[in-house]
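Hi C.,

You asked whether I'd gotten around to modeling the 152-residue construct. I have! Everything is below, sequence then structure, no commentary in between.
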Amino acid sequence: MGLSKTKFMPTKLVRIHDMKVVKGSQVKEGYYALSYSWNQSGDSIIDQVTGKSMRVDEGKHKIIFPYEKKIQRRGKKNKMKGKVKYVKFEGTIQQICKQFNIQYIWYDQMCINQNNKDEKKNEKYATCIIFIATLIAQWHLSLILIQEIILL
């Protein structure tokens, strides 16, 4: 069971299966919002022309996919090492969302054009509403799940 669509939808959301930014008005279901430190999403470098600091993600985030099989050799059980994949920060988000069956997510780094001052200003005020709307939707889903468990 996923989240129901909220009355307030952000201007943009990220569709998890392909990590594309889509219009929030076109999404027919609920979404999750992500809060995180940008310091975790890449290395900080200084632009030599402008002197401004910016983040560059070179895909150093590690995801370890465990193997389910165990190899048995002459009475000894040996676990195989998990497959390691290095991804950008978005790849980490995508993998976590897939594991929890999350279809859409809002997070500022992709949903707000960081180079557009007007968009940043407008979306900054909407951020509070975005987080409140997702909390209410998640609280409502939790109540439904609790009711279903009680009725079992």
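If it helps when you're writing up: The beta strands are 12-15, 20-23, 32-33, 43-46, 53-56, 61-65, 70-73, 76-79, 83-87, 104-106.

Thanks,
B.
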